[in-house]
Automatic annotation (TrEMBL):
The keyword Transmembrane helix applies. Residues 41-154, 162-263, 282-379 form the Ig-like domain. This is Ig-like domain-containing protein. It is found in: Membrane. Its main location: membrane.
Amino acid sequence: MNSSTTNTELSLSLYPDDEYNIRLVATGEDLPSEIITVTVPQVVSIDVQGPVMMPLDHSSSFSLTCTLTLAPEVNDTTVEMYWVGPDLIPFNSKTDGGVVLNTLEPTMILVNDSVVYTITLNFSSLQASQVGEYVCRALLNDNSSAVSVTSNYSVSVQVPTPVVTASVNTTGRIFESNDIQLLCFVTITPLDVDQIVNISWFGPNGLITMNDAKYSISTGIINSTNYESSLTFTASLSDNGTDYYCTASVGPASSVNGSELITPATATSNNINVIIEIVPLPAVSIDDVGIPVTGDSLQLVCTGTAPANVSSIATVSVQWLLNGTVFTNDTLEGVTVTNSGSMATLSFSSLNASTHERDDYTCVATLSIPDVPTTETASATNNLLTLTDPIVSIFSSQPVFAGQVYS
């Protein structure tokens, strides 16, 4: 070193993995300054490894491993490592609870002149209540200073997909004006936090809301794993051939441990195709029993018959009307009415043209199907005309004499 050279020692405390520009300026002489770039190497690193997201099936087990790496120049440092949960309470047990440590003290190994410490947090049975941010913290002390380094990991879960099925609760065939009830059954895997199950119905026009006057929706809890919803409405012919289905979503009722790390699950039921049948018309027939001769008796018999496709479930009732009014025994003199289910009879004891000749004897048949509010009617009209017995007269236009032949 010559007299013109001056050595200066500079001590700085710098953070690792950062780049610094240091400018050196010589004072008292007309000398240029110089900028020196200094990069500080990383001597301490900490990292946590774990799964991205876990399915919540209550049998899942997984681990979070925290790794602390020290460069050779800090090997003389005393290290303390520990895990804390979302509640910020350190874990300190290998056996107590569903989340435990593999060891109470970190494990140390040498890797390429560096010292590596690890400590693992084991989840034996994943629960929804365990979601949140887990922090691995390391305290380093070299007897002159202490440094704390941390690494965070967020545990998130996916709610199991519910099982959703839909069915028709109305037995037998569905006719117009029938009340139809559709059922939606949902089976879930219960969470260990407050949960909410939302069931929605969809029809030919999309989402069905509680404000839709046509429909009535009721939802309830059967037990801890089963939920049920019903959709009730009155069938019309416009519903024929339409599809209905339900969906169910399951998730937490609110945030857990201050985070939104539980992903809800949604499932859709099978389609229900609604078939609506028209209530058919009955057949009506009127038969005369006897010949309508003045002074004679006569019966008009009306019979109602259900169509073959509903004959096993339908009933038909018949009644006589006169001038639009139900016929009774007091309606016309000398006429009685007998109703017997699908048959009704008008009995005339002695026909009288002035009283009984009418063209508005009407028979009405009504077809009914159990539990179906809609009925169908058909009618037939009889025009009653009476006949009069003929009078036979024999007479001659000329005198008659004995022994003569006349033609």
